[in-house]
Amino acid sequence: MSSTAAGAATDELDPRRTQILRAALEVIAERGYSETRIADVAERVGVSPALVMYYFKTKDRLLAEAIRHAEDLWYVDGTRLMEAIPTASGRLEALVRITCLSDEEVGLSSESWALWIDLWCQALRRPAVAAVREEFDAHWRETIRAVVRHGQAAGEFEPVDADEVAVALSALLDGLSVQLALRDPAVTEERAFETAMRFASRLLGFAWEPPQRVRRRRA
Amino acid sequence: MSSTAAGAATDELDPRRTQILRAALEVIAERGYSETRIADVAERVGVSPALVMYYFKTKDRLLAEAIRHAEDLWYVDGTRLMEAIPTASGRLEALVRITCLSDEEVGLSSESWALWIDLWCQALRRPAVAAVREEFDAHWRETIRAVVRHGQAAGEFEPVDADEVAVALSALLDGLSVQLALRDPAVTEERAFETAMRFASRLLGFAWEPPQRVRRRRA
DNA sequence: CGCAGCACTGACTGACTGTTCAGAATGGGG
DNA sequence: CCCCATTCTGAACAGTCAGTCAGTGCTGCG
Q1: Among B87, B183, B113, which Cα is nearest to A131's?
Q2: Is A196 helix (H, G, I), strand (E, B) or coil?
Q3: What's the predicted TM-score (pTM) here?
Q4: Looking at CB atoms within 10 Å, which of A1, A169, B36, B207 has the fewest?
Q5: Shortest Cα distance from B96 to chain A (angstroms)?
């Protein structure tokens, strides 16, 4: 999943290290943060548990670095995809799509949202995790804000407060994603996508109509 | 906190039992679901750990019942408060207020949102918890939907799809509450409240202006 | 060759904690 | 007063797991 050419650069630095980090991410996604045992991670890599301790002095450190690693991967893939799109409304739609729809090329939605919720949960009590989370969220809102400003400069969007939009839209996306991650029957991926887009278009005053029942085109 | 006269009825049934449940909720809020030890709960009540096992055969069962207990408390307090308000827009504002603002008489916001995030996290993997969560969320959306329909019947709100509004508004509130629970500096309680209300009023087409800097009145 | 440094392991331990169990206290009914 | 059910406890058990440590194999270098 993900990180096709993304992690290549970091892989060069210390293959074993990033190999362990990736394994840790997989285990976290499967078993949850607090249920992740270093034995699991070691087994997945095919090494002894002691080696994991050799690279990361402690379990906390391993998990913290794994989370940060996931953050990096996500942004490398995400921003690359975004920059390929010219119009602001198109970019915004891409943003919404990668958070709501899982069948995209940037395919980390379903399981990575679980990881995201887990991150929140840990951030409640572990200051180290909280710092990563806040940083990540600030970055995310900044991304939205930039798209909004871009669209406003180009005359695509109305001149509303970009900060306000960023807070509101990111919150809405978070909330919808929680329902998706928990597979709530009341919130399907399409519904989440359309709800978020309707919200965004109304807020920013640009035209947007939901795709017809057919799988949508519109690169 | 909360449950002034609320838990009275259930307290009669088995005082010790509900005493343990309440203690469990406190510990969960402090230490987190997965870090909660039965020894903690026992100590808080002032009994031996074995007694906790005596009432609830297993730890999982204790925690599951504690969550359900919290759910009950929340709704008893919540609906009682809501029914005292006549207008739909007033009710909606009350809904938004009890989720965003912590200094209200229904004072479970700050720490109970932590419990809520924890609930999501556990629901990811434990089917039993997932069931409680889904039921709770469905109930919550139904509450919103009812208020919307009520307002539409009274001509306060525009005739938009009530389901759609319920999904969108509950998602927005969830997302904002996450930021509040994690004490993100970018999202203060007032800001969350105003953002949600602006969203709701725009969506439903009713007039709403943010309160002036002064602490608002308007019962 | 010999040596130093690195990646790596197996076996162990120490702490923690859910759970059990045999039995003590308590209190009401006969 | 005795009996029985209920409530409650202290102590021990058993499993799990992060973290340690002494030592092994390997590689490259002088």
Answers
A1: B183
A2: helix
A3: 0.89
A4: B207
A5: 14
